Structures are given as structure tokens and as C-alpha cells.
Amino acid sequence: MSTGNMNLTLKVWRQKNTQDKGKMVDYKVADISPDMSFLEMFDVLNEDLITKGDDPIVFDHDCREGICGMCSMFINGRPHGPKDAVTTCQLHMRSFKDGDTIVVEPWRAKAFPVIKDLTVDRSAFDRVIAAGGFISVNTGNAQDANNLPIPKSQADAAFEAAACIGCGACVATCKNASAMLFVSAKISQLALLPQGQPERYKRVQNMVAQMDAEGFGNCTNTGACEAECPKGISLENIARMNRDYYSAKFISEEEG
Amino acid sequence: MGSITNAFSSSIGKKLIMGITGLFLISFLVVHCFLNSFVFFDKTGVLFNEGAHFMATNWIIRAMEVVLMAGLLLHIVQGARLTFQNQAARPVKYAYNDGNANSKWYSRSMGLLGTLLLIFLIVHLSQFWVVSRFTGIPTIDANGHEDLYAVMKETFSNVWFVVLYVLSMISLGYHLLHGFASTFQTLGWNHKKYTPLIKAIGVGFSIIVPLLFAAMPVWIYLGL
């Protein structure tokens, strides 16, 4: 175990509700173990606030093992903090130095309104999925291996797209608050497999239309989403979505 | 049919318009740069004026000029609309955002670079295009062609115009450094075999073409 505990200054966004204007508030935290996760450090701070009779800081979290996609802190100017390919819950305090000042903000996007403090409403993602991110047939039980011949490379690419946990880091970091990396991953995971084919062109039209209706910005290919994604979702998915969208709109006869 | 028309108003459709018009403007840069490079090879300007005369009189070129201007306007208008829409998608900004950790500054500044280029284009078009197409060039050269080269020499005898042109070509270089490869991604051409090649060509193009353009006013100012 590491030795030497840390003292830190936190600048945290506090906002009572969606209507409140909100502001940054400074907090001191003392005696933080370098082996704590970032969320555990917040638990310590909240215990302290509750003891003092203050309102604890509200933040999203669930599994705390990097697979649920709930945690969503914008730490020192980057979603999920300074480490690559980790979520906030998997970020440890040893990634910071004793005496550091850490700025923590919620995801900021018109489509993700702040509910309270660091918690934002990401149901816009749910509505994009509901617009077509599924297959309508009952696939039954798992089939025997190789019953449906799928090349390994294809299966791997679908799996990599399916690794998206829908946390919204891509939207948070994009200068345009665009959701294209998320939507393209959800389209790709189905477009790459046989089960996704019957609704392929209907799906891309409907999901893109819903994405636009939610008020996300437009992609300008800066690549920030790919760099910050905790699951390493690739920009190739956006190119695939673009191709599918052009095919759907200009070649297929299927309307959305 | 409704599906096709509303395709262009969607987020992907708007990208497609930026990409296609951008690619078209890139093809224009190739022609423009090639013809203007005549200034490096003939001090009398006869060769350059010959090229300018061809561009001004060939009917295919004149027809394409209309398409070019339409494409340029579409690129500008659409680019401005996208910039404003994208800003509106994040009404409350971050107190601290470390953009350099995940993307290049020029990729995030296409609107700013485009605005600088628009200012340059207004100056540039009024100095040469308006003169050669509308108000008329006063002198003729040894071949009897309108002496656009003389207009160029006159313009670039002013060091401030030389500075403006050189700075504008730096903006163009960075605009292309993002725009060239980005266009192919937008068109859906992201491929393990071709994308590295496209990116390399993009970098080469973004350096060579603006560098040649920037060298022209300097060349003429120095009387080389």
C-alpha cells in the first residue's frame, strides 16, 4: 500500500436544480489515501459535509467497476480525468499530487441538463436508443457456435462497438457537444452482425433523426471523443454510420 | 424524395455539404496554384498573363467559375450556420476545459480560421478577380493580353499586402490540415489501408500549396 496521505483543494460545481444558475465552490479535503478512487474521495468529502450539516454533493455512480457508465465527472478539463481509457470510478488519487487543486464539473451540453450539482440527465441517449437501437425479432436462445457464420474480424468489430457504456464522455468533451460517437457505436454493433441487417437502413435514419432532435451539436471530426472515450470506441464507427446514412437516404427505398 | 431533401438538413447531411464543397475548393486550389506558379518562371509576366487570359476566356472555365462561387458561398454559409449551432449545443461553457489533451487547436478552430480566410478572400477578390472580370485592367502586355501581372506587381509593392497574404496562407495551411483528411472521414472513407495515406497526402498538400501561394507575393515584392 502506498504511504503518505494527500491534502487537496477541490473546485466543485454546485447547482441546486435545473433552473438554478449554479457556481463553483472551493472545498479542502485532508488525509486522502492515494489508493482511494476519485469517487471514494468524494464520499469522504460528503461525509464531512453531512457532519457539518451542509448539503452533500450529488454525483452519479453505480457499479464503481468501470462498466455501468453512470459516473460522469469532468475533472481538470477532461471527462473522467487525466487517465486514458478509465471511468471516474476507476481513477485513483495516485494520479494526482499532494497539494493539487482539482476542478470538477458536470457534463455540459444542452441535451444533458444538470439535475443537481454533478448529475446530469442523460435520458436523451435512451430516446436515441428507443428510436431504433434494437432488433425487433425474438432471437431465442443462444445458437450453437458457428450456426451463423460470422468472420472473427467482424465479430470483434461489433464487440468493440458494443463496449460503449453510454456514459456521455464523448458529448462532454466534444467542442460541439456532438453525440456521434455514441450513436455510431450503437448503430455499428448491430450493422456489423446478421441480426441487425433487416432494420439496418431504417435504424440509422431514425437514430440520427432522434440525435438531431435532442439538440446535440454537429460532428467536426476533431477526434476528441475517441481520445477521451473510456472504452476506446473508434472514429471508424462514425465513418460507418455516415456510409450507412448515405446508403439509407440516397440508395435504399426505405424511409425512416 | 422527402428522404433525400431532408437528408441534407440532418447533422450528417450538413457535414456532407461541408465535405463536398471543401473537396471542390481543394481541387480549385490545385488549378489556381499551378497557373499562378508561372510567376516564378517568367519575369516579364507574359506567361502568367497567357494563363490568366485562358482562364478569362475559356467557356468551360467561365462556367466552372459560377459553380466555384456557388460552392464557396455554400461552404461559407453552411460553415457559419454549423459554428453557431454547435456553440448553441453547449449553452453553459466549462470553467476549465483542457482541449489540447485530446485534439488539435486547428481542428477546434475551423470557424475562426475560416473567418480569417473570408476576410482575406474579400480583399483578394476585390484586388484581382473584380478587376480582371468587371472593372477592367488598364494596360496590355507585349502579347496584347490584359496585363494582370502588372496589377500583381503594383499590389505587392505594398509590404502590408505581402504580410497579409503570407499570414492568410498560414491560416489556409491550418484550415487544410484539418479539412483535407476530415473530408474523407465525413464521406465515410475511413479505411485501415487508405486513411494513413490520405492523412499523409493531406499534410503534404496543406504545407506545399499554401507555401507556394505565400511565396508569390514575397517573390514579386523582392523582384526575383
UniProtKB/TrEMBL annotation, chain A:
Residues 155-185 form the 4Fe-4S ferredoxin-type domain. Its cofactor is [2Fe-2S] cluster; [3Fe-4S] cluster. GO terms for biological process: aerobic respiration; respiratory electron transport chain. One of its GO terms (molecular function) is electron transfer activity. InterPro entries: 2Fe-2S_ferredoxin-like_sf, 2Fe2S_fd_BS, 4Fe4S_Fe-S-bd, Beta-grasp_dom_sf, Helical_ferredxn, SDH/FRD_Iron-Sulfur, Succ_DH/fum_Rdtase_N. It comes from the Bacteria. Pfam families: Fer2_3 (PF13085), Fer4_8 (PF13183). Belongs to the succinate dehydrogenase/fumarate reductase iron-sulfur protein family. This is Succinate dehydrogenase/fumarate reductase iron-sulfur subunit. It comes from Pedobacter planticolens.
From TrEMBL, chain B:
CDD domains: SQR_TypeB_2_TM (cd03498). Keywords: Membrane, Transmembrane, Transmembrane helix. This is Succinate dehydrogenase. NCBIfam families: sdhC_b558_fam. The chain crosses the membrane at residues 16-39, 59-77, 110-130, 159-177, 197-222. SUPFAM superfamilies: Fumarate reductase respiratory complex transmembrane subunits. The keyword Kinase does not apply. It comes from Pedobacter planticolens. GO terms for cellular component: membrane.
